[in-house]
Design goal:
By secondary structure, this protein is of the alpha+beta class. The chain has a domain at 69-142. The protein is 46% helix and 13% strand. The strands form 3 sheets. Strands 1-2 form a two-stranded antiparallel sheet. Strands 3-4 form a two-stranded antiparallel ribbon. Strand 1 and strand 2 form a beta hairpin. Helix 2 packs parallel to helix 3 (103-110). It is elongated and about 65 Å long. The relative contact order is 0.10. The model has no long low-confidence stretch (mean pLDDT 93).
Length: 142
């Protein structure tokens, strides 16, 4: 058990954020941390917006660079047509492009994927359901 320095309530350790860099739980519980964060956002709106804008630009650049490889099947190059297909669905943590995560986490997720254009992606999943074909077999089809 640990006491939050903001609300002064004694709570279990799971209710506190864990700081990996210092190898310890923080002194403010998760609900109080959320309140502090929102207060900071309200007080520093311009700074927060600017940081979000910079992050979005870096994130979008990462996705565009990855999509520039083109479709692994038909070599379609238009980035707005390219999807991220997880080679092993069991390793999938989130859908790239639908859920926005940190740059580092997104890079790791993209390593589990291959680029497919929307048509090839849908065609693969259709054939996979019909015949049980693997992605490697699909990519080798003429």
């Amino acid at each position: 058990m640990k006491t939050c320095i903001d609300c002064k309530l004694e709570k279990p350790f799971e209710d506190f954020p864990y700081d990996k860099s210092r190898n310890r739980y923080l002194s403010v519980c998760k609900p109080c941390t959320a309140i502090r964060t929102e207060a900071y956002r309200q007080k520093n709106k311009d700074k927060w917006r600017e940081n979000n804008k910079k992050h979005s630009e870096k994130y979008n650049q990462l996705i565009l660079e990855w999509k520039s490889q083109g479709c692994s099947k038909c070599n379609e190059k238009r980035p707005h047509i390219i999807d991220a297909h997880h080679v092993n669905p069991n390793e999938k943590d989130f859908m790239v492009g639908t859920v926005k995560r940190g740059i580092k986490v997104t890079k790791e997720e993209l390593k589990k994927c291959i680029p497919l254009c929307s048509n090839c992606h849908r065609d693969f999943h259709h054939q996979e359901k019909q015949t049980g074909i693997s992605i490697k077999e699909y990519l080798n089809l003429k």
